[in-house]
Amino acid sequence: MAINGMNSYMGYYNYQASINNFRLTQALANNKRFTEAVSSVSRVSSNSYRNTSLTSSMAFVKDYSSSMSDLMSSANELKSSNQSSVMNDLSVTSSNTSVAVASEKLPARYKQSVEFDVQQLASAQVNVSEGVKASAKADSDMNFTVGNAASSVNVQVSALNSNGSAKTNAQMLKEAASQINKQSSNVKASVVQKDGVASLQLEGKYTGAANTFSVSGTLGAASGADTVKTEAANSKYSMTTGGVTTQHESFSNNVSLDSTRIGVELKGVGKATIKADVDSDKVAGALEDLVKSYNSSLKLLNDNYDRGTGVDKQLRNLVAGLGSEQSLKQVGITVNKDATLKFDKSVFDKNMKDNPSLTKSIISGPGGIADKAFNKGASGMSVRSSSLINGDLTGAQADSITNPYNAFSSFSKSSAYAMNNYYAVGMMLNYLV
User: How far is CA 204 from CA 185, 207, 267, in A?
Assistant: First the structure.
């Protein structure tokens, strides 16, 4: 039997679905949950909700990646395998700068410790004339030679001014010093005055026993300038490294180590140890940065652990720590109750001084703190992005399905045929009961 070209079963099916659709519309219109959902959606569309959720998830993935990258970077700054890390950036120091001062001319190639024992400094020859009354009139001219076989200068100073008046002793000495300084390449001259007494001081420009000079001729006001006050001498010192001591002598107080990469200036008689080693302050700063990066990563993961299974997995990986409690304490690190770390520089400095080999090994040795932190960061970077936010995606999907307005809208799009008795009864049970 057909009605208007359709069989009676399909006509009844269409009629029943339409009735149920109408009844469900009336019921939902009076239902509090439905009206609240409609009100909410009127303010924020479904697409807007999904976009907001997606934006939040993507922002987290970006923060997560940056956090893991920072952790790896901080750890890499302490890895011995990284040639530019602070563990390979050797600094040169002296234990006694009043005896020897060390400086880097080029980066040191390897760690070393050299003990200097300075017995004598290199010195330049010094001659000083007898003191004369500075304001007294000069009683004779000057005509003398200063220098050595390699270089010398003749000094000639008249006792009279151009107008025939007599010059003072101070004036004579200053003119003599001026002539020497203008011409001589190996002697420098100066006039020393104190309590009205003046004298001419001659000093070799170069230290070392070979750098001597002589003074001869008519000295006048500079009488006595031909007498040596300080002998030119070489520096004498010993160096001990690896238990082997060697004796050295140099014309200069500036010597070198490590094929001239390390410069050492001898400053006085005594002992000093010159070291080329890691800079404790730089290591402490890098350790503090690592602790900050670790704590920051831990907080980010803890605050977002429910976003996805990948976050929870990496959180467990990080909480496992960077080493045993005893090892961490050796480098000044303690673990707080919330699994974050705390760095104490004073403890690190003490242990670095008392047992530097062990402390450095715990930090940058194979399987040390730096390696573990770097590997944890690398492991975090390898986590699939989808696993970091699969919880967000599941939650968003569930919200969309359980929202009564969304559900009603989805069914309505399929026309009355979708609102048959089975669907209608199910929806009324879910939203009306």
Answer: 9, 7, 19
Per the structure block, which two tokens stand in for 105? 């001319």
Q: What is the pLDDT of residue 321?
A: 87
194, 198, 204, 209: CA torsion to nearest 10 = -80
What's the rounded Cα separation, in Å, for the pair 433 and 429? 5
pLDDT attached to residue 429: 46
Give the helix, strand, coil percentages of the chain, each rounded to 5: 45, 25, 30
User: What is the predicted pLDDT for the residue at 417?
Assistant: 47
Q: Which residues of 324-362 are buried (b: 16+ CB within 10 A; e: fewer)?
A: eeebbbbbbbebeeeebbebeeeebbebbeeeeeebbbb
- Specify the pLDDT at position 388: 85
Give Cα separations from 309 to 59, 333, 385 (angstroms). Answer: 17, 30, 10
| pLDDT at residue 30, rounded to an integer | 60
Sheet of 214-218: strand order equals: 152-157, 142-147, 214-218
Picking from 399, 400, 402, 424, the residue whose alpha carbon sits closest to that of residue 411 is 424
Kindly state the tokens that stand for 188: 């420098």
Residues above pLDDT 70, as percent of the chain = 78
**Would you give the end-to-end CA distance of the chain in angstroms?**
39
Q: Which residues of the chain have pLDDT under 70?
A: 1-53, 392-433
Helix, coil or strand: residue 418: helix
**Cα-to-chain-centroid distance, residue 252:** 36
Strand, coil or helix: 277: strand
3-state secondary structure of 154: strand
What φ, ψ does residue 182 adopt, rounded to 5°?
-75, -30
Q: Which two tokens stand for residue 181?
A: 């300084």
Q: Tens of pLDDT along 145-198?
A: 999 988 999 999 999 999 999 999 999 999 999 999 999 779 999 999 999 999
Report pLDDT digits (tens) over 23-54: 555 555 565 554 554 454 444 444 554 555 67
Rg (CA), the chain: 45
HSE-CB of 347 using CA atoms within 13 angstroms: 14
